[in-house]
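Contributing new records

If you add data, match the layout below exactly. Sequence lines come first and carry their own label; structure lines follow with theirs. Keep one chain per record. Anything else will be rejected by the validation script.
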Amino acid sequence: QSSKNSLFVCVKYISFFQSTLWMEDERMFESWSGLESCMSGNDFELFIQKLLIRYGFDARLTHNNDNGVDIIATIMEGECKVKYYIQCKFYNRTIGKLPVQEVFSGKHYFGDDGYPVVITNNYISNKANQYAKKLNVEVITGFQLKELIELEKNKEVKDCDYKVLMGKIFNRAREEVNRSSIKKSVLNEGE
């Protein structure tokens, strides 16, 4: 009997913990302030990790000695596990080629079995962007992150032509917006 009670308490705690995390995630994405509250590179990494988890990715921080990769994110697509090696750059200026080089080499260090991605709160220089394209490194800028936050905030589905990781995130965000719109219309019909 006591093991059943312990299990019940444990399940209740996990359920409460998960709903609390979801509420924190909801608040984080209600406005741009989730990103604006980032004060350091570590804060930015945590923000990106939460964003990925929110959209169904398994996202793990690499911590110290990251070899150019801050987050390794995976998601199942049918029977296949797709992996992304992510370099997060929280800068007060436009980023150059170095983060692209770091994540490209980091991808090879960690197994060369996924897609390299640089995510920044800022912009990338034209030369670095061309370099990233040659190396097939996806770059997600602050502008794209703002578009995602606006989608969350306004519940408006934009027609964006993103591919790879940002494309997956946007598609999942659209699905979520559409689901919430359907729920609202069903609830309104019942009144």
